[in-house]
Automatic annotation (TrEMBL):
This is Transmembrane protein. The lineage of its organism: Bacteria, Pseudomonadati, Bacteroidota, Bacteroidia, Bacteroidales. Keywords: Membrane, Transmembrane, Transmembrane helix. The chain crosses the membrane at residues 7-28, 40-63. It comes from Phocaeicola vulgatus (Bacteroides vulgatus).
Length: 318
């Protein structure tokens, strides 16, 4: 590449020099022989040689500038490529699994935190509750999982939308998932517009945008309910897990996770974990006492760890 730039510069200097020399000769001829016809001089063979050298000089100058511009673009692309390579290496490092039988790929947690730097809800959350219900619908050893997310809090800075990141499975088409959102106002439910943002994010991770229809001022109360159904998501013959991911908010005072099963199965054991990027492994919070569990497993915590994922892992009695 340096050789090409050298040739461009050499061509400019060479042809530019000949063009300058020819121009000087033509000028001297005009001054020393004023009786000559100027038109004949300008259309003579030496003059055309000068014109050719001038054109070649301009062409080489344009090629040099084009080359410099393309070189700068290549440098920018190389920087972006290096950044992508670094992200891939980070993702590969994050592709560990929590230390129990049910596998939770921490790649999604990494993506949650990466996107969480750009997506934030200006809300101080008083309570966030996620309830997963294992429905009777499904195929094989998997059943549909109905998810209901309740969020209550106070607006810290004016907002008109609420953002939520959801992670699915490779076999799930997000376009087929009917995400609905409601706002509780005066004891009634008002349906809001909820959509999946088409912003080129990873197929396993999508951003759900809920629009209020108007701007909410600081101090306004937020009381949202968002619900959707994952088809063929949870295992009813072996083990599986549900998660409550990155909250994308300023503060969270209280969280609650619960798992209800409408299928006629028995839970053998259940555990609660939490994981944050930077931890060596997922941290065990609680082994659930199954003596009082029938069809619903639940967990609550005050002042949960921010920018982290909470995992409810269960095993089915055989």
């Amino acid at each position: 590449m340096e050789n090409r730039l050298y040739l461009y510069n050499l061509g400019i200097k060479t042809f530019g020099g000949f063009a300058t020399l020819g121009g000087v000769i033509q000028a001297l001829q005009l001054f020393t022989q004023p009786d000559l016809d100027i038109k004949l001089i300008l259309l003579s063979f030496p003059a055309w040689v000068v014109y050719v050298f001038v054109c070649l000089t301009i062409i080489f100058a344009m090629l040099r500038e084009r080359y410099k511009s393309m070189s700068q673009r290549v440098e920018v692309l190389n920087v972006k490529l290096n950044e992508q390579d670094a992200m891939i290496r980070s993702l590969q490092e994050m592709m560990k699994i929590v230390p129990f039988k049910g596998r939770f790929f921490l790649t999604t947690e990494y993506l949650y935190n990466e996107l969480g730097e750009y997506i934030q809800n200006n809300i101080d959350i008083d309570s966030i509750e996620i309830k997963n219900t294992i429905e009777k619908r499904g195929m094989g050893n998997k059943r549909d999982s109905f998810v209901r997310l309740n969020i209550r809090g106070v607006v810290s800075h004016k907002i008109s939308t609420f953002h939520l990141l959801v992670a699915g499975d490779t076999i799930v088409n997000f376009e087929d998932i009917n995400i609905q959102a409601f706002e509780r106002v005066g004891g009634k439910q008002k349906k809001l517009c909820a959509r999946i943002a088409d912003n080129g994010q990873d197929s396993l991770l999508k951003q759900v945008v809920v629009s209020y229809g108007k701007v909410k001022s600081p101090g306004s109360i937020v009381d949202l309910m968002i619900e959707w159904c994952w088809p063929n998501m949870l295992n009813v013959t072996d083990c599986d897990y549900t998660t409550l991911p990155n909250f994308l908010a300023g503060t969270v005072k209280h969280l609650k996770m619960s798992l209800e099963c409408k299928e006629d199965i028995g839970f053998k054991s259940a555990s609660i974990y939490k994981y944050k990027v930077g931890m060596d492994k997922a941290q065990l919070i609680l082994d659930v006492d199954m003596s009082e569990i029938t069809d619903t497993i639940s967990y609550e915590e005050d002042n949960p760890l921010m920018n982290s994922t909470y995992i409810l892992y269960y095993e089915v009695a055989r």
